[in-house]
Structure formats: structure tokens, C-alpha cells
Specification:
It is a single chain. The chain starts with a strand and ends with a helix. Strand 2, helix 1 and strand 3 form a beta-alpha-beta unit. It is an alpha/beta fold.
Length: 118
């Protein structure tokens, strides 16, 4: 089971392992408040891709395509493999900070993990 949760929502025992999948630390959230088990910066979109996308709904399909291509590169691929291992071991919550809950990189990650049967 792979769930998504904003960094500004309180952790709960049902979250299982909590992994921050953003390149930047969420503003105004302390480490204690975040309740994270791991921070995988390398699985986040590159700064250039994140800034280009800007959560523009018209760019969503192209963002997904470019992000999936980035995830195939060695550094991100290793971080993605680590996420797969965590997901296979039990409940996993991907933690992200954006206000955009319909179109964000954590959704792409979750869908990728679930599509691979992890």
C-alpha cells in the first residue's frame, strides 16, 4: 500500500514508513512535526523541471513524461529502487509539500510504484 500525504498534515500510525519525496524541505515544518523515516531528495523532480512545470495543468502530461525520464537516470533510479523496497516491506506514505493535490510528482511516484506491483 502506497499513500500520499502533505507534509503539513500530522503523521499517523497508519502511515507506515513516511518518506519525504521533495528536493526542498517543507517551509515551517520541523523535523519532529514531519515524523519522517527518510528523505529521498534524489527521487524528486529536478529543479529545472519543477520550475518549468509550475503546476500548470496544461503541462501535466509533458511533466509526467519528462519526470519519468528523469527517474530512469542512475541517481533517481537508485532512490526509486529504495522506495520500491520500502513499499514491498509494508505501508508506505510519500510525503510532499505542494498545495496542488491533483497534479504533483508524488502522484507520479505512487502510480509508478503501484503499476509495478510494489
Amino acid at each position: 500500500m502506497v499513500k500520499l500525504k502533505r507534509a503539513y498534515e500530522p503523521p499517523s500510525p497508519a502511515d507506515g514508513r513516511r518518506v519525504l519525496v521533495d528536493r526542498l524541505w517543507p517551509r515551517g515544518v520541523t523535523k519532529a512535526e514531519a515524523g519522517l523515516d527518510l528523505w529521498l531528495k534524489d527521487v524528486a523532480p529536478s529543479t529545472a523541471l519543477r520550475q518549468w512545470f509550475g503546476h500548470d495543468p496544461a503541462k501535466w502530461d509533458e511533466f509526467r513524461r519528462r519526470y519519468l525520464a528523469e527517474l530512469a537516470e542512475p541517481g533517481p533510479a537508485a532512490a526509486l529502487a529504495e522506495l520500491r523496497q520500502l513499499a514491498a516491506a509494508g505501508p508506505l506514505t510519500l510525503v510532499y509539500s505542494t498545495r496542488e493535490t491533483e497534479r504533483n510528482h508524488a502522484i507520479v511516484l505512487r502510480d509508478l510504484l503501484l503499476a509495478r506491483g510494489t
